[in-house]
Design a protein that fits this description.
Length: 166
Amino acid sequence: MTKFQLGDQAPDFSAVTAEGDTFQFYDHLNQDDRFHLLIFFRGEWCPVCKEQLQDLEEHKDIFSELNTHIVSISTDEKENLAKLKEDSSLSFPVLSDKDREVINSYGVYYHDGVYYDDHESHGEPAAFLIDPQKRIVYLSVQTGPFGRPSAEDLRKTIKYIQKTLK
């Protein structure tokens, strides 16, 4: 499993959007020099994930004021994510990583049902803040559905990092 130190270069990746388009991370970063908050979540079926994504959506103006763009990623099927995006009126990209290339490159835990039975196999929650120089300046990787940072926690963290970043 990949382990990062703060300041490490964020891995590039390609994933499919809920709309079926290709999202190329570095191409996106090269066109958009804001901070990027990558939110990994379990899937459309997860009520805790839906709450987190809705919380982020409700606070999108705060993240915009912090010059931060949200991108969400799940190992769930594109069709399920399209339903989630529409039902929740999410304005930020929702990406499908069905082949687990993105979660593997970021060291996100993958639940395969070995230790406990929980809705088959899926990626677990994680958050990464990437600065305009493509460096990882914050990370939170979970091994279960709870303990993920709220929108308010992320707001405080981003504000602090931006204030103190060298």
